[in-house]
Structures
1.
Amino acid sequence: MKSRSIELTQVIQWEDAETARVEDYLAAEEPLEMRSRRNSLGVTLRTPGDDEELVAGFLFTEGIIGRREDLVALRMPSDKDPERNLVRVTFDPSVRLAANSAARRFSAGSACGVCGKASITQLRQRGLRRPKAASPLDPEILCQLPLKLRAAQAVFGRTGGLHAAALFGPSGELLVLREDIGRHNAVDKAIGWVLLDGRLPLTGHVLVVSGRGGFEIVQKAITAGIPLLASVSAPSSLAVQLARELGLTLVGFLRGRRFVIYSGEERIAVSAPGSVGVS
């Protein structure tokens, strides 16, 4: 059975002055709408696969639900269903959508996250708590995580076009990895798996993401109680501001045997820094 996460196409390849028509794998991208009765909760562009986890993680990290029990049911359509990109959500009666910014109706791109996202001031109103303290992580363990993430990216290995988010335990053991055309969706899939499995909060765990560590991903990590977020690229200024304000350990440029700590250095077992320089 063909996976909906990958599509096959024909392309023209040029290499060393030789031209050939070859088959190539593409990462799939399709819209997904989340709906509760007559209320549209949002539309996102995603790579099909792990959709139940994506919806659960999205609803949790965006503050629409606050616990696993708030989510009564998710009706996931089959691949042959005409509405295969529509997920119907049933909430516990205690969930009041009207109080969640008019049911949070918006459209989200696969790469940019939620359009018109709330500022840090509005996030404070959600009452996000500082992640609990965790034992300092060995830098040697931290440096191994990107290699483990890359080795577990099955779809990326065939398409070269997907982001990944992986959760690791305190000793560097892989808990879950999810892929998607959008880094925010990959994070929601991983957190959604944890939520549905009843493992939240993720005290002592590390979230590693491909690409950059943006504001949205910092917010999602804090919501899940993750104390340390690391990315292989740079964070944004707003991401650093939020991480410092809410006590998240934020690491960027995690490549080889080098990384940069932007906040929360007490959670990584490093020696005291020397003189100030330019990274």
Note: The domain at 30-116 is CATH 3.10.20.10 (Ubiquitin-like (UB roll)).
2.
Amino acid sequence: MHGFDDVDVSDHDLVAPEHVQRALTAGELVFADGATQVFEADGGNTYVENGRPTRGEWYVDDDGHFGSFWRPSYRARYDLRWMLEDGAIVGLRFTELGRGSQFDGRYRV
């Protein structure tokens, strides 16, 4: 993934709060099940699963965690961690706080 040459991180490092927006909006993320997600700088996002798009919202909370909101009432918070291969950032690992569910999104290249 291009655009992270100035970010000095290792695989599995937490994404620092000041890098969350940049990490999320760097490009389309592709998940293991083929679903995709695009995060927009204005806080909107689109998740596409089986060809069906769903619109949501994202934010960074006061603790520096990534949060998402899906209407009508689903809200979740996540730790974001960098995924690196051969020293290059290739995606993000999402771990839901309180539930522990984890999923990896790889930047589409």
Note: The chain has a mean pLDDT of 93.
